[in-house]
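User: Structure please.
Assistant: Input sequence and predicted structure:
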Amino acid sequence: MSANIPQEFNNFFLKDVSFVNLMTRRIFNVLIVANPYDAFMLEDDGRVDEKIFDEYMELGMRYPPTFTQVSTTEEASHVLSTTDIDLVICMPGNADNDAFAVARDVKHMAPYVPCVVLTPFSHGITKRIEHEDMTIFDYVFCWLGNTNLILSIIKLIEDQMNIEHDIKEAGVQMILLVEDNIRFYSSVLPNLYNYILAQSKNFSTEALNPHAAAQRKRGRPKVVLATTYEEAIHWYEMYHDNVLGVISDTRFPMKGVNGRLAHVEEGDAEAGLKLLREIRQRDEYVPLILESSEIANRDKAWAEGFDFLDKNSKKFNVDLRQMIEEHMGFGDFVFRDPKTHEEVFRIATLKELQDNIFNIPADSFQYHVSRNHMSRWLCARAIFPVSQFLKTVTWHKLQDVDAHRQIIFDAIVQYRRMKNIGVVAVFDRLKFDRYAHFARIGDGSLGGKGRGLAFLDNIIKRHPELNQFGNATVQIPKTVVLCTDFFDEFMDNNNLWTIALSDAPDEEILQHFMRAQLPDALIADFFTFFDAVKSPIAVRSSSLLEDSHYQPFAGIYSTYMIPYLEDKYEMLRMLACAIKGVYASVYYKDSKAYMTATSNVIDQEKMAVILQEVVGQQHGTRFYPTFSGVLRSLNYYPIGDELAEEGIASLALGLGKYIVDGGQTLRVSPYHPHQVLQTSEMDTALKETQTRFYALDMSHVGDDFKVDDGFNILNLRVKEADKDQSLQGIASTYDPNDQIIRDGIYEGGRKVISFSGVLQHGVFPLPEILQLSQKYGSEEMRRPVEIEFACNLQGSGNNTTGDFYLLQIRPIVDSKQVLDEDLAAIPDSQCLLRSHNSLGHGISEDVVDVVYVKTDDDFTAANNLIIADQIEQINRRFLAEDKNYVLIGPGRWGSSDYWLGIPVKWPHISAARVIVEAGLKNYHVDPSQGTHFFQNLTSFGVGYFTVNTYTGDGVLQKEILDSMPAVEETEYVRHVRFERPLKIMMDGKKQHGVVLLPSEAGV
C-alpha cells in the first residue's frame, strides 16, 4: 500500500523531549497554622505525614513533603527563619481563634509563599469567612478529614508553579477545571488527581527503563482551578494550544468583585455555557464538559455538542472518570463504530498502535482521526513530539484514510527510533522489535564492551552531525546485553567453579560448560531478539575488566558468530552454545596467563555477553560486510604530511576478525584519504593489499563449537567477493595488458582492494565519518581512542548509499612518563637497538634480559609455529618470576599466517617490555598494525620497534647478543642476560626508540 502523502507530511523531523527539567519546583516543607486541637484533628492522631507518604508511594511518586505546625506568630516567625517553607495551610477552627491573623503575619513575613485555607465548613466559619479579606489566600478548601485532599492541594500548587516552564519546555497539557463551589471542588480535585496520577503511572511503562519511567511521570497533564469566568478565560488564552480538556460548572461569577470569595457571589446562571461556547469557537476539537446540579442544563449542553455531568448523581466521580477516559485520551484507545458507537478495536500501547494501525476498520479510523482523537491520546500519554506533529495533520488538510495511517505509522517509528538511541532499555518482549535498539537483560553490569557500545550510542544521539550525510547512516547494531548476574547464576547453578579454576585443558573446560544449562526464562527473550534482527548474531564477551580505561582485555575472550536460520530452535541451540563458549573462555589457559600479567584475580572477573546483529549482507551461504575497520585517534606511524593526532584507520573487505588476526589491511589517515602508501605504486598495490577475506559460513549448522571461535568463519580469496559483486566502491582492477591499475571494477583482471571509490572518489563519505567519529570519541573519553566499525554499501557510483556501524570504542592508555631527551643525539654505538619506526612512549630502566629468534642463513618461516611454542614456554617463566625482557624476531609478531611472522597471541609474549620486528635480507617487514596488540602495547607501556639493518633502517647490534653466554637456548630461540639493566627510551610523537647498552647508560 503506497498512500499519496503530501510533501509537508512526508519529510518531518520530530524533536525529542526531555522530562528531566519538568516539575523542578516542588513543595517540600508545609507550614500548618492552626491551634493544637485543629492540627490534631488534621493529623488524625498525628499520622498525616505517614498517610501522605503512603499516598505518594502508592502512586509511584517521590519527595513527599514534611509538615510543621504552629499556632502563634512567634512560632511561625521562628520556623520561617530556620526552614524554607513552600506552602502555608491556614486552619481556622471552630473556636474563636486567630488563625487568620497569624496567616496574615506569615504572608507579611514571606509574601511569595502560596497560602491556602483548609476548614471544615460549619455555619459559624462560613459566616466568619464572609467578612474576612481573603485576597492573601490562593485557595480555600473544605476539609472533611481525607488526606488525599492535601496531596491534591500540593499538586495543584506545584502545577501552578511549573506550568509556564513545562509547557514551553515540553508541550505538557493542561486540564482546566472551572468551579466556584468550594465543597464541590474539594471533593472533585482529589478524584481528578488520583486518576491523573494513576494514569501517569500507567503511561510511564512506555519508557525503556525504570529511570526514564520515573522521569516520564513528570509529563502528566497539569490541573488548573479557576473560580470565575475571567480567570478561566485568562488561563485558556495563555495556554490554548495545550488544553487537553475543559470541565466547567454552569453557574459561577462573571465580572466578580475582587477580594471576595467567588462562592459568595450569586453567579451568572449561564456562565459555563458562555465559556464553553467561546472556547468552541476557537478550537473545534478540544473536549468540553459541562457540569450542573440543574438537570435542565443537560439539554442545553447536548444541544451545543458539549458533554454533560449531573452533579447530583450518586456516582458523579465514576461518571467524571469515564468521561475523561473517553474524551481526554486517558486509558486505552478504544476505536468505535461511528454508527453504533460499539467498540471495534482497543489499543493499550504505542507499539500496539504501530503494529495494528493498518488493521483498524477505515470508517472507525476516519471517525477518530477527523476528531483529532489520536493526537489527544498521545498527548495524554506524554508522547508530545508525535502528538504535536499529528495535531497539524488535520482531516481538513488531508482526506485520505490510508495516507493518515502511513503518516501516523511513520511518526511512531521515528519517535521510537529517536527514543531508543542513546538509551540502555530494559529488555521487554512486548517492545523489542526491528525499531528497538539497545537493551539489557538482567540487573548486573554491562561489562566493558557493553558500556563502550552504550557510550557510542549516546555519542551518536548527542551529535546528530554524524548523520548529516544524505547517503549514509551512522548507528550501532541492534544489541542485547546479557548482564553479569546471569554469569554468576550460570556458574553457581551448574557447579562449574571447580573445573573453571582448575588447570584442565581448554577443550575439557569448554565441554563442561557446553553440558551446563542456561536459565529457561531466557528462551522467549531470545526468540523475540531473533525476530527483531533477522540476521546472523555475534555473541561477544563483555567482561568487567575488558576495555576498561586501564586494562584492555581486547581479544582475550571468545567471540562466536551464529547464522540466521529459519529453524528458530536450531538457532536457539547454537546461540546457547555460543554464550556458554564465551563464558568458558574466561577460564582458558590464555585468559589465566593474561590475568597474571595484569595482576588481576580470575574469580573477580565477571562476564556479560553481548548479542548483536552481525553487520553484513548475505551472498549465497556467505555473510559479510562490504568492509570493516579499526580507527585509532593516535597515529604512531605518520607518513608524509600526516600528523600523529590525525589518527589512522585500517580497512579490510569482509569481517573485522580478519584485521584482529593480523591480516593485510589498507592503512589510511582519515584526513589524508588521497595519500595511501600501499596503493601509491603498482608493485606495492599488487603485493601489499588484501588478497583474502573472512565471511561467516551460513551453512555451518550444529553444536560442534570449538575453543577456536573462528571455527565457522570462511577464509576466502578476494575473487569470491568479486563473484558476489560486493566490491563496488572498494576495489580497483589491474589490467595486465596495459600494466596499470584502474579505479573501479571492470571485466577480467585481478581486483585490488584499494578503497578508491570511498576514499578518493567520494562515492561514500567515509573519511568525513571517520574524522567525526574519532573527534567525538576522543573528546568524550578525554583521551585517545580505538574504534571498531563495519559498513554495508549498496548501489554503485554516485548512487552509492551505506550504513556505517560503530561496533566498539576503548581508550588507548598512554604512558605518563616524561621524555625530555633528544634520542637522535645518542650515537649508534651506544645503542643495542635503535628504531626510527617505534611504537610506545616512556622510559624503562629495569630490564636485563633479551630473548631473540636465531636468524642465521638457514632460517625459514616454516619453523615459526615451533618458535611460537618455545617463546611461550620462556614467557611463562618470566611471568612466574614477575620479570620482563626485550623480544626480537623476524617478520610480523602475532600474524595468523605463519609465513608472515611468528603466530603468537598476546598472552604468549605478555612479559615482553619491548617487542622488535627485525627485517631479514629476503624478508620484507611490514609494521603489524591492525592486531589487538596495539591496544595491549599502549596499555602496558610496551615498546614496539621495527628495525631493518639490511635496508639501513635502524640499529640492531646482534653480534653483541651472539657473543654473550645463553641463559637458555633452544633450537630456534636464545635468551641472554646483561649484568646491569638496559635503558629503554621511546618518543611516541616522533616514533623514535632506543635501547641503550648498560655500559653507556650511566649505571
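The longest helix spans residues 147-170.
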